[in-house]
């Protein structure tokens, strides 16, 4: 296995930077590349031409900087597991690369945003192998040196970082070639394989009978000084709420736990009057409280972003449109008509907002 050290890997970073300013959350981005399935997980670089940037070198000649945007799930200062979009060298071993960037003391140290930290213990070595749609990840013994309170966060960060790739649906963990049935510190049981269905930043508050509930993942946001970013929260909703679309929207309106530092931007008097679904597009009709405090009768970008990110976590939903009291002539803060579909971005926290 290749040793993950700051000195050997940080030098490979080509114009890597955390994209917390500039293009905004819902910029058009190229779809995450699929990973080819040889023994060492690779990515078809022929599909990554859009990521190549041409710049001038010191001799005045054109130099190609081959980079690609990836989501790294890191831990913020509040303890949330949060996706941060970074620009990395276009390494053909993409799955191994993103894991190496989750290792503390490795190349991620050069690009960590303020208040965030890596999730895998320092000096951990990583190897990977794709078996069907399952990525088998083999760590060195240093993997077991994390703090006990980070155990669930490590599982979530690894799983969600790797499953950003289309061909990876599940993750299996090993240490020195031996499969883990439980995590090494607090002995958290590990299922046969890990997936996004296991959730992230789990919130089981207000749940009386967990067996009569199901999970949905909602997106709220955090304001830390000049930094704002979205946080995925997996909540449990009662099975009596049959309609998943209405259940997600109503859970967003209810908002996060009052004791959290999360915000949702949706006025508590907002009401979903109706919803239709056709060919991947959900159209939501709200009462006028969806405008919140805006006098101009426009919908906040935070409301739009939370709705789109949360609803497109549901299978089959690709985009969202909004009307108010049946009126389709509704705009966002930047003047875009919300009767036109708003699609989910490939990368979540790609810019300031």
TrEMBL record:
Protein name per Swiss-Prot or TrEMBL: GerMN domain-containing protein
InterPro entries: GerMN
Region (Disordered): 36-61
Annotated Pfam families: Germane
PROSITE patterns in the record: PROKAR_LIPOPROTEIN
UniProt entry tagged with the keyword Membrane: no
UniProt signal peptide: 1-22
Organism of this sequence: Fredinandcohnia quinoae
Keyword vocabulary terms for this entry: Signal
GerMN domain sequence ranges: 95-184, 245-333
